[in-house]
Write a structure and sequence with these properties.
Layout: E1 4-10, E2 13-19, H1 24-37, H2 50-57, H3 61-74, E3 77-80, E4 84-87, E5 112-113, H4 126-139, H5 154-168, E6 177-180, H6 182-196, E7 202-205, H7 210-218, E8 225-226, E9 228-229, E10 232-233, E11 252-255, H8 269-282, E12 285-289, E13 313-318, E14 330-333, H9 336-346, H10 355-366, H11 369-395, E15 401-402, E16 409-413, H12 419-428, E17 431-432, E18 434-435, E19 450-454, H13 460-473
Parallel strand pairs: 5-17, 7-8, 7-11, 11-12, 12-13
Antiparallel strand pairs: 1-2, 3-4, 6-14, 9-10, 13-14, 15-16, 16-19, 18-19
Length: about 475
């Protein structure tokens, strides 16, 4: 016979039936069995009447009626007066039972987390963000739905320039700003530019995120360490810091001057000046990570280092701490000479950040919602910090707390040799915490035992439990 097929509307969807073989009846039965067996026809699905299906397939009605009757006899279908012909419930496709897993202990996640680096995600301003998104979408020009300017939406760059100048002391003309998908993306672009400039090494702080060092080494750059003390990173050592490859020295330095991560020290004014003097004298570049500069509690905000010399500092900001890391929105404020090189590294179209998310953030900032959210979160995090300090003073008086003038985390000093045992005890209590040694540069062994406690991380419902668990494990 000649093969025939049809898309048959069953239960509101089209079902592809293909009749093959030497007989119409047997071909139809095979097609229906296959549809049931593979799950395309679910148990309980009502089939078309024999008249309707015959018309769709272009075959005799008796052929369809006979096929239905035989499939009912085989148990594939059921037929009841007033209910029509349906796929039998017991005709569901059989799937092989999964192999029994090997007996292994199940490792449950922690009940509480005080890991640093994350804001309170439950506090994301959903309603205000939705309002901003609606306004942004309504006002968006048609071209916003295209591939876009690699610098990012001009609406966002314009409001960022105003906000950063007002709140962080950054010289931020919109033409100097390049939108990126968070700090990691921005640092990746800068690493490519430095490597293309034949820079061999970027100095990093002796405590910091290994992921950032890995990004730079992935670009072919070495990352010698600068020591830290109570006045912040020893930037005066930049001039004498040798490149491990034996070249002329470092060509850039990565700093967290407003609130060193993770120790929490603000870079002393003398050392800010030393960093800028080094950059001017050598033609070097300062990469400024201003990850949580908006959250300062006990005195006036510490402005960005970039304001001292916008031509020698590449400023990297992000919404990851002020709003949420899931937004994947950040920005570079660049020296004029770097803008073209960063855009070349990024590519000819904006592919990393959604134009609609950029427009929403622009509206969120322009409407004042961003400032209100930051003020609200500053109060919330300060209360958390104060509760942490009070609880430790009462329940673990031997533990000193440092790095608490700003940011979303604190450093808890521990007796020598106890960091690892405290972290293990915390795990038994269902509490995730991080040790200071986790952030030490490979060439700079940890100098002290401490915990880095992210007091912003837990939602309000878990904060008390996390604090209790922490106090139980401290020596």
């Amino acid at each position: 016979m000649t093969d025939s097929w049809a898309n048959i509307p069953i239960a509101g969807v089209d079902l592809h039936l293909e009749l093959r073989g030497s007989g119409l009846r047997s071909g139809l039965m095979d097609a229906l069995r296959d549809a049931v067996r593979t799950g395309r026809l679910a148990p309980g699905t009502r089939l078309p009447s024999s008249r309707s299906l015959a018309g769709d397939l272009g075959i005799a009605r008796n052929t369809v009626a006979d096929a239905y009757a035989e499939l009912v006899a085989e148990g594939w279908l059921t037929a009841r007066q007033g209910s029509g012909t349906r796929v039998a419930r017991r005709a569901a496709p059989r799937r092989p039972a999964p192999a029994a897993p090997r007996t292994r202990p199940v490792r449950r996640g922690p009940a509480y987390s005080l890991m640093p680096g994350t804001p309170d995600l439950a506090a994301f301003p959903r309603a205000q963000w939705l309002t901003a998104a609606r306004r942004a979408l309504t006002a968006a020009p048609h071209e916003a739905f295209g591939y876009g300017d690699p610098r990012g939406r001009i609406e966002l760059r314009t409001v960022l320039a105003d906000y950063l100048a007002r709140a962080r002391g950054v010289y931020a003309d919109p033409g100097r700003i390049v939108v990126c998908a968070g700090f990691v993306h921005g640092l990746t672009l800068l690493g490519k530019v430095l490597a293309a400039r034949r820079v061999r090494a970027v100095a990093t702080e002796s405590y910091g995120l290994d992921m950032h060092r890995d990004l730079l080494t992935g670009a072919g750059l070495r990352t010698p360490a600068l020591a830290l003390d109570a006045r912040g990173t020893r930037t005066e050592d930049l001039a004498g810091l040798p490149d491990p490859a034996g070249a002329r020295g470092v060509g850039a330095v990565l700093l967290t001057p407003a609130h060193q991560f993770p120790t929490g020290v603000a870079l002393h004014p003398d050392r800010r000046a030393a960093a800028v003097d080094w950059a001017r004298g050598t033609g070097g570049l300062i990469l400024e990570d201003d990850y949580d500069g908006e959250f300062r509690y006990d005195r006036q905000p510490v402005g960005a280092l970039q304001g001292l010399d916008p031509e020698r500092v590449a400023y990297v900001g992000t919404a990851s701490k002020s709003l949420a890391p899931g937004l994947r929105l950040g920005w570079l404020v660049l020296p004029d000479e770097l803008v073209g090189e960063v855009l070349a590294a990024k590519g000819e179209a904006e592919w990393a950040s959604s134009a609609l998310d950029q427009l929403t953030l622009a509206e969120f900032i322009a409407s004042g919602a961003y400032d209100r959210h930051v003020r609200s979160m500053r109060l919330r995090y300060r209360r958390r910090r104060d509760q942490l300090v009070e609880a430790l003073a009462e329940r673990a008086p031997g533990i000193s707390v440092t790095g608490i003038a700003a940011g979303l985390h604190a450093v808890l000093e521990l007796p020598p040799g106890t960091e690892r045992s405290v972290i293990e005890a915390a795990a038994w209590q269902g509490l995730a915490v991080e040790g200071l040694s986790r952030f030490a540069h490979p060439s700079a062994p940890p100098e002290r035992d401490a915990l880095v406690v992210g007091y912003a991380t837990p939602p309000d419902s878990a904060w008390t439990g996390a604090l209790d668990a922490l106090c139980r494990v401290l020596p």
